[in-house]
Amino acid sequence: MVFAASILLAACYPFQAHGQDFQDLNAYSRLSVGLKANLFYKGTTETLSGNYPVQSKHMFSGQLGLEYALFPADQWDLKVGAYIGIPPVHHLEVFFSREDIYPDYPYDEEVPLVTYGFYSLNLPLVFTYKTRLKQNLLLSFGAGFQYMYMPSGYIDYSVNFGDTQTQQEKQVFTLEAESSDAGHYSGALLSVGTCYLTAYGLFECSLELMGAFQPLFTGEYRVFNLRNAPDSHGRYSLSGHYLGLNLKYSWKKKTRSPF
């Protein structure tokens, strides 16, 4: 839908499809600073036994880094980048009725289970095509690949409830998930955005769609030890797909410079 809307927007402007001149982009640095806000698709839960509901939710994450344009004055460009990010692991919600916890437990519990990884290194390689909407406004489309390194890890998450009257505590939920042993991931990257040329620098805003080739985390969860509900067991997987908003800035060069 985003890409269709952008194509429709571009069609509303009388730009020339071929032979456009982008020499004015040489006035800006080829190096840009980028800030990304990503909405990761929620993980999937597959019940293997029992029927206790475990809800999965979308997760937000961020990245900060640099990009370099190899051919900024050409209509077709190639951009390479390096971003440091915080990868998500899981965002689950589990509802526990007070009758299921202890006979005299005072209230129901809705427990959010949220965990993020330590860091990730993201290296995009994107071919871009740009066209001029106005003298100082460009529309760009991008397609490419992204490599990501994330240190391999293991998550062991549990939920426990205590009874203040009997001083007892019991475990009712566990999630065990792990990433790839190698820590290497990749995916396809699509983008559409606009570039605004000003006297203060080049500002770019784009939407990105990342389709991961392998899941970031896989594991299993268990719900057990409840008074009135049977034990449940299922699989969990986080695909790594996300929709991102990328804001970039390139400063205007004061003197002639290759960067």
What does this protein structure show overall?
The protein has helices at residues 2-11, 98-101; strands at 31-40, 44-49, 55-56, 59-69, 76-85, 88-96, 109-116, 120-134, 137-149, 154-163, 168-178, 184-198, 201-212, 217-223, 232-238, 242-250. 5% of the residues lie in helices and 60% in strands. The protein starts with a helix and ends in a 9-residue tail after the last strand. The strands form 3 sheets. An 8-stranded antiparallel beta barrel has the order 1-4-5-8-9-12-13-16. A 5-stranded antiparallel beta sheet has the order 2-15-14-11-10, with no helix packed on it. A 3-stranded antiparallel beta sheet has the order 3-6-7. The radius of gyration is 24 Å and the shape is elongated. It is built from 2 helices and 16 strands. A hairpin with an 8-residue loop joins strand 14 (217-223) and strand 15 (232-238). The protein has a single domain, classed as Porin, CATH 2.40.160.20. By secondary structure, it is mainly β.
Summarize the structure.
5% of the residues lie in helices and 60% in strands. By secondary structure, it is mainly β.
End-to-end CA span: 35 Å
Query: How big is the Rg?
Result: 24 Å
The H/E string reads HEEEEEEHEEEEEEEEEE
β-sheet strand percentage? over 45%
Order of strands across the main sheet:
1-4-5-8-9-12-13-16
Q: How many independent structural domains?
A: 1
Assign the CATH architecture: Beta Barrel
CATH topology: Porin
The helicity comes to under 10%
Structural class designation: mainly beta
What is the 3D shape? elongated
CATH domain class: Mainly Beta
Query: Tally of extended strands?
Result: 16
**Largest beta-sheet characterization:** 8 strands, antiparallel, barrel
